[in-house]
Amino acid sequence: MFFRHVRLVALAVTGGLFISGAALAAPCGDSSGGYEAWKPAMAAEAKAAGVGDRGIAALMGTSYASKTIAADRNQKSFKYSLEKFMQVRGADTIVAQGRKRKARDAGFYAQLEKNYGVPAGVLLAIHGMETGFGGFMGDSNVVSAIATLAYDCRRSDFFTGHLIAALKLVDRGVIGPGTIGAKHGEVGHTQFLPGNILRYGVDGNGDGRVDLNNIADALSSTANFLAQKGWRPGAGYQQGEPNFAVIKEWNAATVYQQAIAIIGQRIDG
């Protein structure tokens, strides 16, 4: 539900191909007025970037997501003090539930740490912070949300790459034109933006597909993301410790980074 994964200004949308929002020519806008005229221009750019017929059709079927724009301009909680942020986000509840989940599925989390080096507390802190352990994974059309943010001038460069990725995910059947996610187009238990699904998504349950609405896939993908960003197995992750820099890659807000570190440590004990 919040702006996250800020490192993908230019993301790999196919093997070896990098698409930057700045390289795309479709004009941005500051209101809904130009959105319908923007779609065919964006469709041409998407097609040139390798998006197929299904992805193009999904783009042309989108609607301007006014609730997404409202959410993007009203992220007040990131301005709270750490104490207030922890209170508002229910840190104590996340810790309690996280400990129970770690104990209940100890083998699963131990295997994730063996595979990726990331301890259970960090993954559970992210899972709890992002969606309340899957309790609320969003109420917005993913493709419309991402397309609206790509069209909107405020952060068009950042979200255009994720739009191309979303349309390629539609082509591949990973998401559909009607897939529901968070206000900024994030998907699943730990709220991956589309470009990050393409780049870091993992089939954690072995069914042959990446589905971020599946806990095993979502947490495996989250652990893979952190590992690929440089997580050092066994090193600390509090502020001033080596892995805190990797937590910064997950979210741009300082209070969010601090909260993940503190909650994760409390879960890990």
From TrEMBL:
Signal peptide: 1-25
Highest taxon of source: Bacteria
Membrane-crossing segments per the record: none
GO biological process: peptidoglycan catabolic process
Official protein name in the record: Murein transglycosylase
Limits of the Transglycosylase SLT domain: 36-238
GO molecular-function term, one example from the UniProt record: peptidoglycan lytic transglycosylase activity
InterPro entries given in the database record: Lysozyme-like_dom_sf, MltB-like, SLT_2
One Pfam match: SLT_2
UniProt KW keywords: Signal
Entry keyword annotation includes 4Fe-4S: no
UniProt-listed SUPFAM superfamilies: Lysozyme-like (SSF53955)
